Amino acid sequence: MDNDQTILEPFTNSDLEKLNELKASKAVISEKKVRHDWSQTNNCVFFTIYQKNVQTNNFLYYIKSDYIFLIIKINETEVYPLEKFFFSKIIPSKTVITITPMKIELSLEKDIKELKWDQLEKKTNNDVQEKDENVLNPFTGKSIEEWTKFAQSIGEDEDNQSIDHFFRKIYKEGDDDLKRAMIKSFQTSNGTVLSTNWKDVQNKDYEKEKNDKLKK
User: Fold this and answer.
1) How far apart are CA 54 and CA 99, in angstroms?
2) Phi-psi sector, 191: left (phi>0), alpha (psi -120 to 50), beta
């Protein structure tokens, strides 16, 4: 290992309230002033901040499954804050941060392996919200058979118990709209469709659609 390289491990979260207080008490450097970028593999996302000569005790961060807020102390009067809402969930406890004289790199383990992130941050514009939901859930509104194939493709075993575990995990970690969508789509389609998109499900009549297809 390079002698100039410091790895912050194990995972240590700073107090979010204290970070906000620090930000409020100092002069803030614009996010655009410091270059940063990201890359990914099937299992991890790498977020790099190109700030030189950062001491370990001058780098503070708060991270959870879908969000990070970090602060770099530039000097006694200035701080560089950075806040990101992730495109998809990560596993916070697996976070590894490497500090070198030239940069800071965060290694973030994806919660859903093999999921390709379109970008680092989650979109917040209402005009593209529905599109985002379909990116995160590529089999929205599809049949149970297609969901099963999807589960198997990301490493689940082929037995029904493992597939059931996959569905339960999605339901458990989803928000209220996702849960409503899964329940209604499954029940009203007699178990043939499972959707996670409430906007798509709330006005759908799966039984009518099925009958219309049979008449054709």
Assistant:
1) 7
2) left
DSSP 32: G
- At 170, the amino acid letter reads I
Are the beta carbons of 170 and 196 closer than 8 angstroms?
yes
Q: Work out the average pLDDT over 192-207.
A: 79
- What percentage of residues in the chain have a pLDDT greater than 70? 71
Strand positions, DSSP E, the chain: 6-8, 27-28, 36-40, 44-49, 59-64, 67-73, 78-85, 96-99, 104-109, 142-143, 193-194
DSSP state at residue 159: S
CA 62 – CA 83 distance, rounded (Å):
10
Concatenating the DSSP letter of every residue in 109-127 gives EBSSTTPPPSSSBPP--GG
- pTM over 0.85, yes/no: no
**pLDDT tens-digit series, residues 91-149:** 999 999 999 999 999 999 999 988 889 899 987 654 444 444 444 444 455 566 666 66
CA-based Rg of the chain, rounded to a whole angstrom? 22
Domains in the chain, please, with CATH? 6-109 (2.60.40.790), 126-215 (no CATH)
Question: Residue 189 has which token pair?
Answer: 């389609």
Measured over all CA atoms, what is the biggest interatomic distance in the chain, rounded to whole angstroms? 74
CB–CB of 92/122 below 8 Å?
no
What number of other Cβ atoms are within 10 A of residue 19's Cβ? 19
Q: Are 205 and 212 in contact (CB under 8 A)?
A: no
